[in-house]
Amino acid sequence: MLKCISAIFLMCLFSPAKAQLHNDPVFPSKELSVQWEAVQNDYQNKPVSLNAITITNNSSIEFPGRGWKMYFNSATLIIPDAVTRNARFDLMNGDLFRLTPAVDFPSLKPGGSVRIEFVAEEPVVNITDGPEGLYLVWDAMPDKGFSTGTFTIHPIKPNYKGLITTAIIYD
Length: 171
Prior knowledge:
Blueprint: H1 2-21, E1 32-41, E2 49-57, E3 68-73, E4 87-93, E5 96-101, E6 113-120, E7 132-138, E8 145-147, E9 151-153, H2 166-170
Parallel strand pairs: 1-9
Antiparallel strand pairs: 1-2, 2-6, 3-5, 3-7, 4-5, 7-8
């Protein structure tokens, strides 16, 4: 009887730890670095901007091409379909967007990168026009967000029709 009670006690003691193991993400999201680049204002001669997000796998394991979504905030509206056709952008609420990998989105081997080009509905003026607060949500754990690693913004040199710079004002 004492053995039975001891066995039940041990099962109860270690069951939460075992259950916790199943809640671990498939991939360590902190090992993803993300870069944003304002590629071109007045894209296709329209008052919009072409932008790019590059996701790089800095881990020693493969990052899957499916089973996740990336969320971020952006003050600028984004056209849903990526120019590169490897992702989709959806406005969730306010300034919260969701990036969903498309069928063409590749799995990223260690050290691998993927570039996603997309169009924002306004020209890029400064870094505040880029995404911020990126985090990953696994489809298997939709109620939990995981921060990504390093986020880098490429230097911006805005130029578009109607841009007023200090040189124009003071020269």
